[in-house]
Amino acid sequence: MEFRAANAEAHPDYFNAPVPSFGAGDARLLIVGLAPGLKGANRTGRPFTGDWAGDLLYATLLKHGLARGTYSERADDGLVLADCAITNAVRCVPPENKPTSAEIKTCRKFLASQISSMPRLHAILALGKIAHDSVCDALGVKKSAHPFKHGGSYPFEHLTLISSYHCSRYNTNTGVLTEAMFDAVVKRARLAAD
Asked: Each residue of 131-189: pLDDT tens digit?
């Protein structure tokens, strides 16, 4: 709380509030990230907008027909998602991009509500272990039976959960996640959503 209050005071022009989901509620694919980035979604008010992770995510979504328009790191850039929606496991920016267990648990009800309110949802792409585990908890499935792994795919009765390393600059700079790996997992999620 103190971190967010200090950030709001230092940057009164930032969004500085819980970041809402982006995309239509009747989408067949839901992408779940970690949390708003301090100078990304916390600044712009749209998930994955204004930072490196968004650069990679939106370019990949455009390539696979899951978005239309031009991404230019602003919430008013005119970009539109196509049969896809994006949300975060944690809705407010956490200190050092590391949400606490309490923050994750508090925001889980919003994630569960998002998932249950999407009548055409066929696939969820979880970006990172925290997002993966939060989706498992929101779905009420055991994480031990559905462990996080890049490219992991878990079919359930009504949808498929696919997991990826987070598309952060850290993961791409260290080679944990390459653009080709990310492209392949987004393609797999798009196919699972059809």
From this structure: 999 999 999 999 999 999 999 999 998 999 999 999 999 999 999 999 999 999 999 99
Q: Average pLDDT of 6-14?
A: 88
- Measure the CA dihedral 124/125/128/131, to 10°: -20
Q: What is the pLDDT of residue 96?
A: 80
Could you tell me which of 138, 31, 116, 33 has the C-alpha nearest to residue 82?
Answer: 31
Domain boundaries, given as residue ranges, for the chain? 2-193
| Closest-CA residue to 75 (of 22, 115, 25) | 22
pLDDT value of residue 104: 95
- What torsion, rounded to 10 degrees, do the Cα atoms 82, 137, 91, 152 define? -50
Is 74 exposed, middle or buried (CB count within 10 Å of its CB: 0-12, 13-18, 19+)? middle
- Please list the helix, strand and coil fractions of the chain in percent, rounded to the nearest 5, in that order: 40, 15, 45
List Cβ neighbours of 168 (8 Å cut-off, separation of 6 or more). Answer: 52, 53, 128
Q: 2-193 adopts what CATH topology?
A: Uracil-DNA Glycosylase, subunit E (3.40.470)
β-strand 153-155 against 123-127: which pairing, if any?
unpaired
